[in-house]
Amino acid sequence: MSFRDDHELHKRRFGRNLGLGIVLAGFVAVIFGLTVVKITEGNIAEAIAGSTANDS
Amino acid sequence: MTDIGAPLKTEQDEAQFKDFVELLKPRVMRLVVFTALVGLLAAPNTLHPLVAFVAILSIAVGGGAAGALNMWWDADIDAVMRRTQNRPIPAGKTTADEAKILGFALSGFSVMLLGLATNWFAAGFLAFTIFFYVVIYTMWLKRVTPQNIVIGGAAGAFPPMVGWAASTGSVSLESILLFSLIFLWTPPHFWALALFTRSDYDNASVPMLTVTHGRKSTRKHILVYTVLLAAFALAMMFTNIAGPAFIATALVLNALFLKGAWAIYNRNEEQSDADSFAAERKFFKLSLLYLFAHFGAVLIDVALIRFGVWGSL
Is the ipTM of this complex over 0.90? Predict the structure, then answer.
């Protein structure tokens, strides 16, 4: 089995796609980090109490 | 979108990643990042470093989005002016529609990210800044009044206030002082540029002061605004935001800036032509140093306070 050659368009846009891929990976890392910070800095007990109060 | 039927492009014709970065005006973004960072760090609150990073990133992306929307709207002007002819749209690298989509998408993204990372007051402030730059300055003032730079300059002056708001969730006298410094600095900075870019604004029919009131009047305006700016910067020395670094910087740079403005005022077109606008170019470069140094000095003073060397926040 052989892979097909890349279409000319893929070669032409390689730099652009690579750049976008790096930006998206960075975005995922930022959101993950932000989530960790928000959870560890926030008062979890208060958040749970708030959500229970909303449920009732 | 499909490329079927479209003429074959080479790698040189294809918009590369750097062309999309160029749409975000990275040089302007540096100023936005720096001034917003100073606003954020000078505020009395302390944010987690990652939250502070995300806040600055959001403000930078918001500033970039405003830049892309400016390039979309002003593509016709940019194509005529020598200084802007190589921007991605007039150079044929990207289309105006791509700039518009990128600008709108990043505007929404940056405002949401700042709101989620810090607070919604700061996010609203960032949204207002983008609106002010794109709608009030780019779409309206720039093409109708020679005061475009004066009022529109507010858009470039908001970032330290947004940075401050990201940290504190509010506006304070100190953040208004930082805003005012950039606001008063913008007119002499851009009018000096307009003097030595010469016929650019004429060709593009942008009512710059040089076009509507003449070059002699522009020189006078530069001097008047520089005097106002210097008076304001020196008055800032007596506020809470100024420490030893700011006082030293303000004394030296305002003296140099006034000297430069005085030199520009006393020159005529023949003298400027003879040395290719040397004094005007020097003043423009000095104006960049002026702003970076004043904000850098605020940062140094904040560091002195945080390390207990000088005063308190």
Answer: no
